[in-house]
């Protein structure tokens, strides 16, 4: 696993956990919190994948 992948998955997990906690605090059930967390993770990971650029060949020159 690359560092980039680890960062993306970690940030996605933090997003999912935060969403679950906020859902519970808003009065949602455990099932709703799990579903909301899954949706948040599923949305965050592709967005972070696009946002955090892969290493470019130009970065090695220097």
From TrEMBL:
Domain of life: Bacteria
Molecular function via GO: transmembrane transporter activity
InterPro entries referenced in this protein's UniProt entry, alphabetically: MFS_dom
Ranges for domain Major facilitator superfamily (MFS) profile: 1-62
Annotated protein name in UniProt: Major facilitator superfamily (MFS) profile domain-containing protein
Organism: Streptomyces alkaliterrae
């Amino acid at each position: 696993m690359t560092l980039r992948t680890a960062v993306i998955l970690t940030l996605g997990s933090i997003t999912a956990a935060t969403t679950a906690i906020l859902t519970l605090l808003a009065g949602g059930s455990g099932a709703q919190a799990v579903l909301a967390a899954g949706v948040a993770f599923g949305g965050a990971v592709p967005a972070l994948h696009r946002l955090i650029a892969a290493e470019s060949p130009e970065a090695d020159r220097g």
